Amino acid sequence: MEILRRICQNRKALTGALLILFVSLSGIFASWLAPYDPIQIDPQNGFKSPSSNHLLGTDFYGRDVLSRIIWGVRPSLAIGLFSVLLSCLIGTLIGFVTGYFRGWTDHLLMRLMDILLSFPIIVLALAIVATIGGNLINLVITISILFIPRFARIIRGEVLSLKEQDFVEAARAVGASDFSIICKHIFPNSVQQIIVTATVFVSSAILIESGLSFLGVGVVPPSPSLGNMLSEGRSNILGAPWLTVFPGLMLMITLTGLNLLGDSIRDILDPKLRHRGNG
């Protein structure tokens, strides 16, 4: 409740939360909000500019752009959220194991993380998608693989720092087990770092999904996503700019909201940055 109160008092956080709420509600209630079927083809109304019948115009096949945008935020948000959740769970586990126990496990897992981090994100994503396919579940797995080493590195550093704190040494001195120390002392003190990291990574995950869809290996048409809508409209960007402008605007709103909220939560939860909370 304290965090929610601070978010409501922080203009940047509140703006981000409202933007995310707008996008999320659009996706959740897409079946009620979308005026047309997003995949219904109407060749006679192809390439219609925005009008009272089609507020954001139509594409080459006569499909309503507004309806496709409303439905298109669903896969973007779902893939972004679930991929970060999965990578957070696995990466946090790796970070705790390697940071607390060290030894050969630390060396082995961290070298594996280094190998994954050595590849450019988009190249590694394309390689994984080409291997396992590009349906929604595989996209979640692909993007989570990209973020697992990043989570693991960040959480490992946090655990290494907490492990040397006096309260952990005191718990160890009175005979507390490693499991007890991790659950009662290290994990509760690392929750803030986990939350901040996950919040910031959601926007990156959505951007990667949009990039993969733009390249034709993400969400498969005719199912709409913001990325494949941008890809479909790029060849007609001069003659029919609404095909790229409006999906791009929705993507920008989504990422802006997530970045504003993520930065604000970081400032709110970090005592050293808390004085910036009302900026």
What do you see in this structure?
The model is unreliable at 275-279 (pLDDT under 50). The chain has helices at residues 2-9, 11-28, 30-33, 65-101, 103-117, 121-132, 136-163, 166-173, 178-214, 226-233, 242-269. The chain has a domain at 75-259: MetI-like fold. With 279 residues, the protein is mainly α. It is elongated and about 80 Å long. The protein contains eleven helices and no strands.
Judging by the overall fold, what is the CATH architecture of the domain at 75-259?
A: Orthogonal Bundle
Roughly how much helix do the residues carry, as a percent range? over 70%
Radius of gyration: 22 Å
| Number of continuous helical runs | 11
Mean pLDDT: 89
Query: Which structural class should the secondary elements be placed in?
Result: mainly alpha
**What's the CATH first level of the domain at 75-259?**
Mainly Alpha
Shape call: elongated
Question: What share of residues are in beta strands?
Answer: under 5%
Q: SSE string, helix = H, strand = E?
A: HHHHHHHHHHH
